[in-house]
Structure prediction request, 151 residues.
Amino acid sequence: MFCTREWAVHQLIYAANGCVAMEKKDVPQDSNATLDGARKVVYAVDEDGKYNAVATTGWAVEEVVTSMAVDHYTHLAQEALLRARRGESSPLEYHMFTRRLNVVTLAQATGKFQWLVKRHLKKPIDQLSPKTVRRYAEALGMELSDLSRLP
Prediction:
């Protein structure tokens, strides 16, 4: 049983197919600071029981969870930065975490196997092929020259 105030505010209903769905009128508008004033679209059930796209400014609970995830990746990036400065890992690992990616998502973005990405995170950038470095730079949205740099 959920006993939080947020749960009471966001009442859920069971749709005809047995899934839990939020009603359009209950879509949260809590001005989530992590969205920086932007809005996003979620799907909710209207009065006729049909799903519709509904704009939202966010949900307080979502803001907390997003902030926790960002803090986690910031921590991982700082640890990776220290390892890279000691020569224990590649700057690639640091840049991966600053872009809020992990081995799985970076492997997916580059089309490489996870075990290969893990190996590359331990090698200096100059030991990777130019094609591989280019793929990482594109996946991370960085210039080739910036990939080997650390702050």
Summary: Residues 1-17 have pLDDT under 50 and may be disordered. Residues 29 and 57 are 5 Å apart (CA to CA). Strands lie at 12-14, 20-22, 40-45, 51-56. The first strand starts at residue 12 and ends at 14.
